[in-house]
Amino acid sequence: MKFIAPVTRNQEITATIMDLTYEGLGVAKVDDYPLFIEDALPGEEAKLLVTKVGKNFGYARVLERLNDSPDRVELPNKSYMQSGIAPLGHLSYPAQLKFKQQQLQNVYKKNRLDIEVLPTIGMAEPKGYRNKAQIPVRQVKGQLETGFYRKRSHELMPLEDFYIQDPEIDRAIVIVRDLLRQYHIPAYDEARNRGVIRNIMVRRGYFSHEMMIVLITRTREVPQLQNIISGIVMKLPKVVSIMQSVVPKPTNVVLGRTVKKLYGKTFIHDQILGHTFDISALSFYQVNPLQTEKLYQTVISAAHLTGKETVIDAYSGIGTISLSLAKHAKYVYGVEISEAAVADAKRNAKHNGIANVKFQQGLAEKVMQDWREAELDVDVLVVDPPRKGLAGTFVEAVGIMKPKRVVYVSCNPATLGRDIALLQEFGYHAEETQPVDMFPLTQHIESVTALTLD
Ligand code: SAH
What is the pTM (predicted TM-score) of this model? Predict the structure, then answer.
């Protein structure tokens, strides 16, 4: 039987929003057929225009809102929502924290997991938190601009205040933009794969105030490069590192695989929980410094260390969690795929005078197997994988090594739920999950869960 959707494209309907998707879109239902709607909150009734009709769901746009949810707030600039900078920006902060707690609860329910989700630990001032930015550079109406892309669009909208970024980073981007204009540097042209400057990346140490600027270019040669470098150093005295990354091909990937030093050092410093870290351009580093400390405190208390334990920190990045745990443990082994991050981690251990850690470069799932074969006796395993979660072979190695505790730091509830269900088959169980809001105003959900052997 051919499915016929109960609505057609360009139809106008009035409906009540029932729910929010994990991406923060409002959901209205017409005879059980879901419509996803931007800038629409549960409890709001709205006149909608159906914009897209698919087999299982469609999209609609609000023509007129008939009432406001009590959780609705106004952002200073509507374009933040259209761009994906702040997809939850229309939701009050307490409601955002509750939304994230509920998303985790929903995932657990779906996976039939009986785990309590604690209230999300939020920020006192949920804005201006990002310590890193990657901003596209394009030619708009004859002028080089920095800004953002509207969702599902290839047209850059110029913007100077990115709201969720450290304001000093916003200021640096404008200064670099003005220098690029002054020296008539051609912006990248996506359609023809021409032009020179594709993106500007900025990193800033929250405690050190040191800044790194990475120019991401299509070509190796950049006209007037020395003038641009001198201009940046003169106008931004806190810049201690300027790097270049060449990305010649048309791609959505922002950063190339290698970076070249143009000025100063190859890294900046920052501090977490009293330790100092070198952070280089290609290494992962948590983007919300204040919340990172709360996240790591949560990890430390979830690990229940007494000083006698052997710990594995898998997906260890530049060693931030490893070093935070080291003084509470006998020994910490870190494993991480990125060579740049492992080099940072080794330097970081040395500079902080921490000797009871060792970092291994490699795939976590592979190195875990090696450690298992070497019969490494692990008491506590900390994992902090990327969004796709743990590899099946990694979970199998855990099942054989049987650490007494596993502390799972997750940035994706869907894969967290899946992996906990798998770990349960090896006798692990979790009591509670603590969400920590690392990404206010966005839909991203970070959490910490301790699992123990039954
Ligand atoms: N725990 C660190 C880093 C977490 S981000 C922190 O809090 O800062 C996840 C890290 O996993 C990244 O550094 C990424 O390079 C690394 N990674 C991704 N896939 C991996 C894999 N299969 N094996 C090992 N490391 C991996």
Answer: 0.95
- Amino acid at the residue 44: E
Q: 173-183: per-residue pLDDT in tens?
A: 999 999 999 99
Which of 203, 284, 419 has most ligand 1 atoms within 8 Å of CB, for mutation? 284
For residue 387, count other CB atoms closer than 10 A to its CB: 10
pLDDT tens digits for range 133-187: 999 999 999 999 999 987 777 889 999 999 999 999 999 999 999 999 999 999 9
CA distance 291 to 138: 33
- Ligand 1 center–CA 366 separation, angstroms: 14
Spell out which residues line ligand 1, taking CB within 6 angstroms: 284-286, 315-317, 320-321, 335-338, 341, 363-365, 384, 386
Backbone φ and ψ for 381, nearest 5 degrees, come out as -115, 125
Helix, strand or coil for residue 420? helix
Catalytic residue among 411, 424, 429, 452: 411
Is 411 one of the catalytic residues?
yes
pLDDT confidence band for 2 (50 / 70 / 90) = low
- The three-class DSSP label of residue 68 is coil
